[in-house]
Each structure stands twice: as C-alpha cells, then as structure tokens.
Amino acid sequence: MNNNKKLKIDHEEQSIRRLRKLGLCGADDSVSPNMLGMICQSYPFVEFGILFRPDKEGEPRYASKEWVQRLGTVAMLSSDKMNLAAHLCGTRVNDALDGNDAFLSTLPSLGFKRVQINATAVNGVDASNLRQSVPTLVSLMEKYKHSLAFIIQKNEETKPLWEGLIQHYDAVFPDNVTMLVDESKGTGTLASSWPSPPKQYNIGYAGGIGPSNIKNVLKQLLEVTSSSDSHFW
Description:
- Helices cover 32% and strands 16% of the residues.
- By secondary structure, it is of the alpha/beta class.
C-alpha cells in the first residue's frame, strides 16, 4: 500500500470515529423489542428513537405503552449497550416546555438516555411561545443533568428556542445539551446541504436520511465536518 492511500484510509477512519451515534427513528409495535436488543449487541453505536405523542400512541411509528415497557426491560438487560432516545412530540413537548416533568421522570427507569424536543407545529406542538419557554427548559435540563441528555431540534421554526438557549449559555452548552439540524422537522425531506458543526457544541444531522442515500449522505457529512474535532451523530 502506498503512503498516499494509507494516509487517505487513516483520515477516513479518524473521521468515522467522530460519528457518535447512528439514530434510527420510528420503532413501533410492529418490531420485536428483542430484535432491537440483538441489533444493539452487534452495533452499540446505534440509537433507537422512540416517538412519544399521546394522540397517536399505538399508530405506525408511535409505540404503545405496553411495547415501551417491553423495550425498557430489554434495555435494562442489555449491559448498557442499548441506546434509547425519547423523541417528544405533541403535548409531551408542551408539558416539558411548561416545566411538567411527570413523563420525563419515567424515562431513565425505562433505559432512555436522551430526550429530543420536537417543538414544531407539524409534530403537534403549540410553538407560539418558544422564547418564553427557555428559562423553564433550562431548569428542566439542569434537574436531569445526571440522568438525561437533551436534544433540541434546530430549524427555522424552533429558532426562538435554540437562539434563546445559545444566549443563555453564552454559546457553550452543558454536557447534556446538544442540537439536531433538521429543517425537515421530521417529515423526511432530504436537505440540499449540511452546515458545518459549530465550535461551541456538538450537533446531529437528520432529515430524509434512509437506506437509499445513507452512504452518500455520510460521505457529505464527513466532508463538512472534516475541519472540526467535534463529534456528530
């Protein structure tokens, strides 16, 4: 192997190592929790995103309470290899933004490590007072700093929320707060371009990424993050 080829391979391997997690969203009652457990044993970098929206519970992509309980049992038996993220939608988001943590408090015992705040109208959320919700959300994230990490969906609609958080933290987020670049807002529309990660905090990328384009998208993400030491997901 010539030196140039070896350097290229080494660079690609270093880039791949910066990929923290690969998120798969929308697991529901049609999938066996045991199967997800088997996947995590072989691929511990995979994170399963479970959508929570009370008015759609039990529908495709929105798991039932009983299924989530079974998943939690599998997670607790996984030797910490199963990564679960609760993707909050609808009234679950509004409750969190109002400081109501009755639902959030149940998540750690079910094996959830991260919580994603999908504060957009298409996700059934009243997004009219996002800026005013910043202090309440900050308090909530502080309360759960040792048990849950928080993902803020970053797009034009949620700008009052994430801009408010950047100002509050002076652009340096605590370890349990990150952002997800998703202009599609969960509708599955592929982005035309991807932003470089900021220096102050880690981000993830989403929107229309699937089996048919994941290889090409990952190549693009490795390119836009090549000048950064930050991890992404």
